[in-house]
Structure formats: structure tokens, C-alpha cells
Automatic annotation (TrEMBL):
The keyword Transmembrane helix applies. This is Uncharacterized protein. Residues 87-98 have a biased composition (Basic and acidic residues). Residues 1-125 are annotated as: Disordered. It comes from Pleurotus ostreatus (strain PC15). Residues 46-55 have a biased composition (Pro residues). Keywords: Membrane, Transmembrane, Transmembrane helix. Residues 99-110 have a biased composition (Polar residues). The chain crosses the membrane at residues 140-162, 174-199, 219-241, 262-283, 701-723.
Amino acid sequence: MPNPVIRSSDATDGAGFWQDDPPTPSSAIFSHHTSTYSRRSSIRPLPVPPAPAPNSTPEIDASPGTDRSSVESIAPVGISAVASPPDYRDPDPTEEISHNGTQPNSSASSAIEKDESPFNQPIASSPQNPFSSAYEAPNWALIVLHVGLCLIAYPVLMIFVLIAKDRTIFWTRFAVSCGCGVVGFCLGLSLLGLARAFLEAATWATLIHQSRLPEAPGLTLREFAAASQGTSALVAARVLLNRIMFQGTARKQRKAYDSRPWSLYVVYFLLLVLLAASLPFILGRLVEISTRITNQHTDYREVALKGDLSAIDLTRATELLPVFEHPILGWTLSHYEHGQPPQAFSYPWGTDMVYFAETTPSQLLPDGSGFGVFVHTPKNHTNIDVPGTPTSSSGIDAGTTIRYPRWGARMHCRKVPNAERNLIPKSSLNVTYLFAPRETMVDLFTSFSLQFPKILDKPLNLTTAIKPNDTLPFEIDPNPLTLGVGFNDNGVSHSYYSSPLSMGEDGGGFVSLEFVLVRLNTEFTPEGKFPVLGNDIISNADGTESRIGYDAALCLELFEPWIVETYNSSTGITTSTRIINKASTTTDSLSGESNIGTTISGVKRQLNSSALWPAYVVAHQNSVNKLVKDNSRDAPYMPSPLVVSYSTGVGANGFTELAERAFIQTRLQMDATNLLPYLAGTGDIVGRSYPDSVLSTARILTVPMVVVLVLVLAFGVLAGIFVPKLPLGVPRRDFELYSWVAAFHGDEVTTEMQRAGVERNMELREIEKRLGNMKFRYVF
């Protein structure tokens, strides 16, 4: 058997690795050809050979035919001796060199020559980077995919924004999070796919740089495995740390053959990892979510609130009847004992305006009340039951819409027709008489679709209408008339007469006739128009003369139960929003309404006027007496702000003429302030509370979103195009199986695994323990 050939590690295409001490620079490596095709790279684990005989001399293979640049390998460093042919020469492509140096027979060579195996096909030329030869050829498929993802990111996010519109805050956030998560995940995955080549190139470059170190070249298998186990920030940080710690990666060690800033490539990879991980969060911050509170009218809870009069309230009102029925006293209920009276408001219903008293916060509390408690204030001002100042903070939740029945008022008026006959300024006893024609009264009742009362459907009885011993200036025909009212000559500029036609016996409310008489000195009404002027001449201080002007109207006022909607805001202010319907009991106004709470029992559900007449009389007279009190004190028939409001004019001398619509508006506002609040006391009634819905919408902040997507696009394209080539012209390598197949030779790995004692069924951690300290280097 021929002597082994010892080849210098500086001139070989192989490599070895050690397990104990590293070899000296003069170490030899094992090399042989096993086929007729050239292998570009290999990891060749070789055992340490036996020492040569004492008398033998190592032979240095310096065959000029050896091509040192055609073979590159990752090889375990070590010394190896093999059998080699006596006369080493370059292998012929058509020949196979056997392990013992003999040439195979011609039939075998012929078979190899005719081998059509894909392993014998010529290697195609590698694609080139269109911008610079210092970079790898771009993976255009990944780049196009990344560009496409960036282009469709905004439309996809817009779809999720549209899905999130008008949802609850939970579902809006869920939809936005899903959209930003999906888009951010896809863009981040695309960025990582493009950035992976940077980490792979830096890892293999680290091995190559460390392999060029003259002293102890290469990396241990454990170090290289840890740096190539995946594309993550932790692995990149390990690679960056290795490049800082290893000597072979220092710029001064490799500046002769590679001066590129590989650490910056790793930093760029880490930047892309950070961007990819942050994309869902960043995109989520660029979608603005706004909320709004909306009223919903389908889900409700039944609630009890103070919207009626209790038995004790009616008892107190009955005790006050003699005071308010006194013809001279003119007593009024003081609102100071209850705080400010509630605000009056109105809403249209057909051609009418219906007036209501606003709900007070006290009415929504279990121990609260309305104004209809009819309690006088004690002299010492102690123990006052103030509805506006409840003692309990629990009640109907804020942020809800409340529906419950309450009393409302509406009125129709007609000017007295044929005033020169139906409005007599003065009788013999200085009484002003106002007569109501039956035709006008029928028209008023017809306007409300009410039946004309039989008590009025008969001729006027002048004996009862005119005061005893009084005579009129002319004859009156009683047949077309139905009512006659006399007003004393008392100097009051506006006077009223009320006649209740229904005291609520039927439970449906109250009906009242209301007459208004206006008497004004024409000196203070320069724009005034009066259908009747008095005969008396008044001499004024400035030498002018004036007379008293007369005007009157006949009105019909209705007090009825209505279902009104009130919003109980979180600020503690109640605001009525609309009329639901004309009814005395709260019922469904929409199909599909459902009670999401418990049904209340033992509480009134319907407004009924059958027992409320004492409270109505007291409250009605309270409102009229407050109207009358707004009159001049020292001179007769002087204008007042109230009487001027009955016309279309303004100012102290602004009265023009009695206007029906103006009087209705003023009178109903007064009744809604001074009458209606007293029809609700401490009595409970069932209503409905509709909790608010908090709906959300999402909106993309377009400019910041476009900027972020453009940056993601630019970072990805840069990562895809400018992947650095490995040092010394080494072809691109990654962490996939094909790169390891190109680097390792199966027979060499098997030999070294046998030397390390690695068996087929050994545990993975044991294999890592036995092979982890083997040192590799990349050999050219």
C-alpha cells in the first residue's frame, strides 16, 4: 500500500475539526475525490490520523494541476491522513478516481459519460443585482408581494372601519383591532421575509470572517447553531454580540478582503423586526375611534316616579279651597317654599301647541316629590318639604330617556264678534258686560272635536247674566247668546273669567271656558286698535284727551294626559324632548319594544282626573291670581308687560290689539308654570326608562397612515434589493436545508459522528452535548 500524502491546510480544499486542542497552522487535512463532478462547498469532519513512522518524511502535495479555487468548504479543523495515488493529478471529468488511486475500467467510465442524471447537468448562470454587483440578486417575488400588501393595506383597513361604524365601543374596538392586527401581521411578516436575508448573510459572514483568523480559526458547532437557529431579534442580537466579541470580525482583521459594515446590516434587521412587531400597534393608533350617545327606544325598564297626586296631597289641597275661592283675597301659592318653578315648554301636536311643566329632578327620586304637595311654609322656616332638594341620591339612572304620562294644556281662542253689540263698556252701575254668541262657542268646541255642552245650548238668561238693578244702554237679544259675564270698573287693565265645564269626572282631564277682557287708556296705546271705546273723556296732564279702549276674547282650554319623553342627563338636568302620543298610560310606540327589567306591581299606571278636582281648582286659581297681580298700582287701566304680551307689540306703549295667538301663548306659559306643576306631588306612577346606547365610529387618519405605509414599503424594498453578498465571492447561503446540503458531505459527517459516539436513536440533548464543542471553519 502506498505511503499517505500529507497536504498543507493552506493549500487544501478540505478542512477538519478538533475535540481537544486545536492543531498547529501546519496541520494537514483529508481530501479526496469521490465522483466526477465538482462539489462547491463541504463540511468535512475528519479524525486525527496516526502519527507517521519515525523514518518517513511527509510529502507536500504541490501538484501544479490542483485547482484551489474551485472547491470551498466548511470543514472541521484537524489533521488527517489518507491513502492517495502515487502520482496525483487533476481528475479527468470522464474518469473516476477510486479510493486506492486505481482507475476504473472503461465500461464504468463509459457509463458515467452517458449518465443523464440531473447532477451532471451544467450549472446555470446566477442572476445579478440590477443596481450593484456588491449585492445579491433580489427576490422579486417577495418584493412584489410586499408592494402589493402595502397598496391594499389602506382599502382593507377601510373595510374594517366601515364594519365598525355605529357599533358599541366593544365591537368597534374589536373590529379596528382585528383590521389593524391582520394588516399589521401581514405587513410585518412580509418585512421579516425580506429582512431575513440580512441576518443570514451576516451569520455566514461571521463564520467566514472567523475562519480567516490565523489563530484558532472557526466557530464551535454550538455557537454556529445558536446563531442560525431562526430569524428573530434574539438571534440577531447574538450575532451582533458575536461580531463585537470575535476577533476575526474586527475591521482590522478583515479589511484586506472585506471592509463592509456587517454590524449595520444586523442593526437594520433589528430595526425591521421592531417595525414589524410594532405595526399592529402603530396602525391601531392611526385609526381614531369616536363615540356618541344615542337614544334607543326598544329596550326599557319600568320605573316608578312622582307624577301623580297622593291622597295626602289631595287632602291638603281640599283644605286650601276656601282660601282660593274667596272673591277678594286673590291668594297664590308661593313657589319659594319649593324652589324655582319648573320651566314651561311646548311641542306641536297637529295644528296646536301643547304646553307642559318640565320634570324636576326630585320627581325621579324614591323620596322626592313634585310641586303638588300644598304645604305652607312655617314661620320659623324649618322642616320644609322642598321637592327640588331631595334627601336621597338613588333614583332613575342618568343617561336614560324616560316616558311617563303627565298633564298638558292647550287652548283655542276667538275674538268677540260684533263687539259693539256683545261688548258693553259701561252699564248704569259701571259694569262692563261681555256676551258670548252661541255660534262662536260652537266653533271653539268644534275646533277641538268636542261635543257642544247641552248646558250652553240654550238662549241666555239675561236675569242671571245682568246684576240686579242694572240696566244696559240698549236692548240685547238673548237668543243667539249663551253666556254673559260682568266685570267691575276696578281700573285693572286685564280681567279674566273662568267657568269649568268639566271637573275631571270622566277621568280624562279638565275643560274650562276662559274669557279675557282688556281695558287700556288710549293715551298709552298710540298704536292701539280697539273695537269699542268708552264714552268717558279723560283729560290728561299734557292737555290732551283720551278714552278707555275695550277688547275681549273667548277661549276654551283643555287639560289632558299626554305621554311625553324626557331625557335624564348625567348632569342632573331633565329635558323633555317630544310628545309620544295622547294617552294616559305608557304603551309601546314601536314594534319590538321589550322590558329588560322587572314588571312593577302595586303602582298606578294611568293618569286619572276623577279625584283631582280640589288640586285643579287650587292650582287654576293660583295661576289666574298671579296673572291679575301684574297690573298698575296708582292709575287705572295702565299697560303692563303682561297685557302688552297679549298683542303683537313690545314696550310700555307698544300695545296694538288683542291677538288670539299671542294671548294663547302667554296664558299657556303661565298655566304651565303656575298650574300644571301642582298636579304632580308625592303620588307614584309607572313610567319607562330607556337606557342610552353608546355607539362608536372609526376614522382613519389618512395622512399619518399613508406616511407609515410608504415607510413600510420603502424599508421592505430596500431590504429586498440590497442584500449584501458574502465575502470572498461565496455564493448566497441561508438557514434552510439546501444550504446545509451544499455545505456538508454525508460520509464525512457520519465518520465524525461515529468518532463522537453519536448513535441513531440518541436523545437530541445528548447529541448537542457531544457535538456542540466541535469547531468549524469555512475553507476556500
